[in-house]
Amino acid sequence: MTDTTSGTRAGKGGAAKGGKATGPKAGAGLRIERIYTTPGVHPYDEVEWERRDVVMTNWRDGSVNFEQRGVEFPDFWSVNATNIVTSKYFRGALGTEQREWSLKQIIDRVVLTYRAAGEKNGYFASPADAEIFEHELTHALLHQVFSFNSPVWFNVGTQQPQQVSACFILSVDDSMDSILDWYKEEGMIFKGGSGAGLNLSRIRSSKELLTSGGNASGPVSFMRGADASAGTIKSGGATRRAAKMVVLDVDHPDVEAFIETKVKEEEKIRALRDAGFDMDLGGDDITSVQYQNANNSIRVNDEFMTAVENGSEYGLRARLTGEVIETVDAKGLFRKMAEAAWACADPGIQYDSTINHWHTCPESGRINASNPCSEYMHLDNSSCNLASLNLMKFLRDDDSFDAVTFAKVVELVITAMDISICFADFPTQKIGETTRAYRQLGIGYANLGALLMATGHAYDSDGGRALAGSITSLMTGTAYKRGAELAGIVGPYDGYARNAEPHQRVMRQHADANAAAPRGDELDGPIWAAATETWQDVLRLGAKNGFRNAQASVLAPTGTIGLMMDCDTTGVEPDLALVKFKKLVGGGSMQIVNNTVPRALKRLGYQPEQVEAVVAHIADHGNIVGAPGLRSEHYSIFDCAMGERVISAMGHVRMMSAIQPWISGAISKTVNMPESATVEEVEEIYFEAWKLGVKALAIYRDNCKVGQPLSAKSKNDGKAEAKPSAPAAVEKVVEYRPVRKRLPKGRPGITTSFTVGGAEGYMTANSYPDDGLGEVFLKMSKQGSTLAGMMDAFSIAVSVGMQYGVPLETYVSKFTNMRFEPAGLTDDPDVRMAQSIVDYIFRRLALDFLPFETRSALGIHSVEERTRHLETGSYEPADEDVDVEGLSQSAPRAVTRPQAVPSAPAAPAAPAAAAQPLPTPVVHNSTELLELQQGINSDAPLCFSCGTKMRRAGSCYLCEGCGSTSGCS
């Protein structure tokens, strides 16, 4: 462990490093109360430890991404949590003695650093209190009660800079020096693995003059340089994109250009994709388009939203003088925002007046921007240190919420978070100075969705919102109460004196909101009562001592740390689905029904045999619709983010509004909308969120982006309706026994000659007489050569798979865009460019054998269809161009082809009761399992590390397989 008394890289120095009061007051110090631990017994001695091997592979090519054998973890930690902590958070070079190999080592590395810094800076009343602090923090981390954000695990107690913050806000002024500083500062933050946001509204618009004459470039032009920098540096030297947020005020004269940036680039992506370029997220050619490395948001104020409501005009103002230089129709501008978000998910929206109404430090400056995930909002050039609690750890066996223990853990965690600022390093001097002066913290939680379902509350219900609101109010109130107690011991934050009145005003707003909040049932009642008492203590102690922290709480995505804590749901999100994918200790995996389902059914009064029947139904169908004995009024309790029954977009917004009054910062949240959603519905979401007091949100309409891979299974393919029965158990191993359907002796076929990058070959594709493609043979090079042998083996493997029922679209989705030599130009007018031989083969097979709708969703079109799109804006054929099967015809080719045929066959025809499901060779996590089981598209990118499909976590994406995220933490 490093010496925590060492200086920092930025802003080194005595008092400034720890705040105004770094030493103890006479007779002062916290008395730490025991929560979980026993005197004289170390937390490590109370659990069973076991050794495990961690081997993580990329399923796409079978390569080993990470391997470390013999690691030590408690026996109750899941395989997934073990893998993620070992690969992400263990420090030291692999294969060396310096490499960490036990969970004990990383917890000690962090906790002992925190204890030492707390003792040095006068936080504890005695050494005994310091020891209790150490043991309680260790126990809570060991038992997955909470987790610090990732930078703590990366950096604390190592020889590298002690960066503890995950979220940063920068600033930029209207000068070239400041703009170049922005590029540099942002790059340094990306290099360290974190994300940053900033507001560009100080930069003069392209409609204003420079002092030397001529027009200014405008912020949109400078965004290009920053975007290129982010795409080059990526994040932490890793393969994923950097995380950044770019904000522009709605009254900026370049606001329309800002709104349209990503819309225009999305059109460019589509055109390039149709020309054969690899435009998937992470593809080789996606770097040719701009503005893809940032989330964009518009800052709207109450004046603008009122103008939208009234249908009046709104003025765009010069940056230097503030005078109106252009007037626009507010409703029309709002419509353009909604149209852009509908088309490409950007820009999001931030409600400036609401944000600054809850600002504790307005005398020190306005809140202008947020971090990339939109949960941290405070002063420019500042950072936020996050930690999240696992709410399911506080649910008692009788389904009541343990508010007393919850509050004690909040006090423990917020104390540790504040101590970390005493020794933390920061990427720039300005950020270090601001953070030490205002000590912004962001405590939050995960597993809310699981908690609501387990207690029998629908996510979109008054009872669910009341329970969520009560927990949030108690959490933030307790955090500020502990901050006021700390202010009496080690002093308030440096900026408190000038902001005392507004800070106390915001505390009163929180308390008033708590008093006015609607109550639900007997479960949330005691929590509200505890929160009410706590807020009264906040007002009393704050008036006496001031506050230690300018900000206390946020709701982060909790991506990687959520997996570390074995949480079923992240942040404020509902459950993804009712079934999930579970890795087993001995290798392999299984499908399980979420454990929250039987717990919820039991609370709702169902008998054990009824619970078993419902769970068995879910195991077979993936949803509760039609479950035996389940009353229809209980269906909504089991609504999820994806699946047969999904939570409405407004249901997500209403949940955000129910907890926002007790979040110091904001909520990381993207509101998913179906592909069929309209621009008017986007407008409604953005408008109602303002009315409901939400601080910020973004929407995502399914399949609106080109660079998102789609499910390999169509919802209406009708191939896998029947599934085998299974015992009514919570955990059920999925066993598939597909039956091979051989082709007849005589079968229709097509032989195609092709050239890819100068390499010539022949492909023969044979079909079932009435049921799709059944085998493929490839001929390249001379017989007996290595290449010819590999192509024969590959052909046999694909052919046998199709005869066992693997759909052709599955092969197409997996093998297209695979890149290796030979690659390049082809002699096929429908596929002008190919990344490899297999890329060409499966594009050709898709064009010949897949229905138009299926291959269009995969981005594969004939030359005729691409031409039609350029002329009419649609790939779809006119009525006279469609055959009786409803399938579009490709342009004439030199070879004779059969009539268009449906996609590859399922298992052989059999009575419905004995029908066999399709095999599932490509399922690697819960998202892919849900896609296969319910035939839906989870519109998410593939993980760059392990190749599995990621899922939403707040406004970021999370990989369940390896813990990688697309966000800032």
Automatic annotation (TrEMBL):
It comes from the Bacteria. Pfam families: Ribonuc_red_2_N, Ribonuc_red_lgC, TSCPD. Keywords: Cobalamin, Cobalt, Disulfide bond, DNA synthesis, Nucleotide-binding, Oxidoreductase. Residues 10-21 have a biased composition (Gly residues). Residues 1-25, 886-913 are annotated as: Disordered. Belongs to the ribonucleoside diphosphate reductase class-2 family. Its EC number is 1.17.4.1. Gene3D superfamilies: 3.20.70.20. It is an enzyme of class 1 (oxidoreductase). SUPFAM superfamilies: PFL-like glycyl radical enzymes. This is Vitamin B12-dependent ribonucleotide reductase. Residues 165-700 form the Ribonucleotide reductase large subunit C-terminal domain. It catalyses: a 2'-deoxyribonucleoside 5'-diphosphate + [thioredoxin]-disulfide + H2O = a ribonucleoside 5'-diphosphate + [thioredoxin]-dithiol. GO terms for molecular function: ribonucleoside-diphosphate reductase activity, thioredoxin disulfide as acceptor. Its cofactor is adenosylcob(III)alamin. Residues 898-913 have a biased composition (Low complexity). Catalyzes the reduction of ribonucleotides to deoxyribonucleotides. May function to provide a pool of deoxyribonucleotide precursors for DNA repair during oxygen limitation and/or for immediate growth after restoration of oxygen. Residues 747-847 form the TSCPD domain. Residues 54-144 form the Ribonucleotide reductase class II vitamin B12-dependent N-terminal domain.
